[in-house]
Amino acid sequence: MKTKFHLTKRTSSRYSPSTPGAAVSHAQSVALIDERYLGWLARQQPHAPSAPLQRGALTSVFAALARQAGVEGTLARAYVFTDQPPTELTDDVVLRMVPPHATDGGLGLVRALGLELTQLAARGACGVALIASDDERLIPYIDEAQWRGLKVVLVADEASQDHARLMKEDPSWARLLMQADRRVCVPESAWAALTTPGASYYASRAVDGERDADGLSDAIASDAPPTDEWRAQVERVIQDWWQEETPNARLDLYEEMQNTQGVPPETDRHLLLRVRRELARTLSFPEKKAMREMIRATVLAQPPVVDEAIDS
User: Fold this and answer.
1) Which end of the chain is more exposed for a tag (fewer CB within 10 A), N or C?
2) CATH number, domain with residue 111
C-alpha cells in the first residue's frame, strides 16, 4: 500500500542553495525605493533638477548600482514606495502606494517597505536588496532580513562616506548605514538620467559620471570654517523661513527642539535645500553643523506665543 506521507525527512528546504531554483533567485537583486528620499537626494546635487524623478530610468540605474556593490546577476524589479499616483506604467517597476508623509510621518512607508523586505527574505525571492531610504526605523526589518540570509545594500550620497562626521551631524542616518552590508553612491551620470525626461542610462556611463563629478569639484565647498559672509547669507535664509512658518508650526518646532538635540529631519532637509539654492552649491560638514546651530538658535530664541499671533 502506498503511504500517504514520506517516511524520510527531506534533507534540504525549498530555498536552500542545493535547490536549482534557488540558485537563480540568489543571482537576482531587487530594489526597494523610497521615492521621496531619492527625490531629496537628487535635489542635493550641484545642478538641482527641474523635472520629477523619471521612473523609467530606475531599473537601469539600480542594476548598475548593484554591480557597483559587487552583485553578480540581474535586477529582477524595482519596488517604488510613493504617495504620487502614476501617470504611466513602467516595465519592471512596481508601485506601492503609501500615505503622504505629512499625514503619518512616514510610518506607513516604513511598514510597507519593511514588510516587502522581510517577505523577500523569507521567501528566498532574491539574494540582494538595494534600499534607497534614510529612515532609521527600517533597522529592525533590515536586521530580520539579514538574519534570514539576505544581503542589504543602502543607496546614499557622497557625504555619507565620511562616517565619523556623519555620526556627529546626522546620527540616525549613520546608524542606518551601519546596519547595511554595503553602501553605494549614485554617480552624476545616473542623476542626469533620473531627472531628465527621455534620457537613457547605461552602466558604461558610470565611469563618465565619475569624471563629471571631478569636474564639479570647484562648485563644492571646502572644509574650511564658515565665514562671516556665509553666516549672513544663511541667516537671511533661516529668518525668511522662520517668518513663513505658522504660529502653530513654530510652537511645535520649539517644543520638539527643547527636548531633543539637533534639528528635526524634515526641517533639516528643507533648509539644506534652501541654503544650497541660495549658495548655488552643496554645503560642507562644518557648514551643515553651523547651519543647524543657527536654526536651533532661531527657533529657541524665545517661546512662540500662538494666541497673540492669532489675535493680531
Assistant:
1) N
2) 3.40.50.1010
